[in-house]
Amino acid sequence: LHPKVDDVCVIGIPDEEWGNTIRAVVQLEQGQALEAQEIRDFCRDKLAGYKIPRTCVFADELPHSPVGKMLRQKVRELYGKP
Fold it and tell me: Is pLDDT above 80 for 82?
């Protein structure tokens, strides 16, 4: 996990060319700033090329259940549109 990132959820989004593509929905640490390209560069030497997010969206807060589990379906509803 990048030092400036508090939480992240990776989802698939529709893509006309590839069918689906990867999007990272990122919640930053309080008071931090980060560019989408910095996320991609950070992932480049840690992940295979096809696993690197094509797009990054920054969220103030990611939805979690009362027990702390990421609500991926809610994340898809909020940030899963191309």
Answer: no
One-letter-per-residue 3-state SS of the chain: CCCCEEEEEEEEEEECCCEEEEEEEEEECCCCCCCHHHHHHHHHCCCCHHHCCCEEEECCCCCECCCCCECHHHHHHHHCCC
pLDDT mean across residues, the chain = 92
Per DSSP, 18 falls in state T
* Mean pLDDT on 17-40: 91
- Cα 68 to the chain's mean position, in Å? 18
**pTM for the predicted model, two decimal places:** 0.86
What span, in angstroms and rounded, lies between the C-alpha atoms of 26 and 58?
A: 5
Cα–Cα distance for residue pair 24/34, rounded to 1 Å: 13
List the Cα angle 41/60/15 in 5-degree steps. Answer: 55
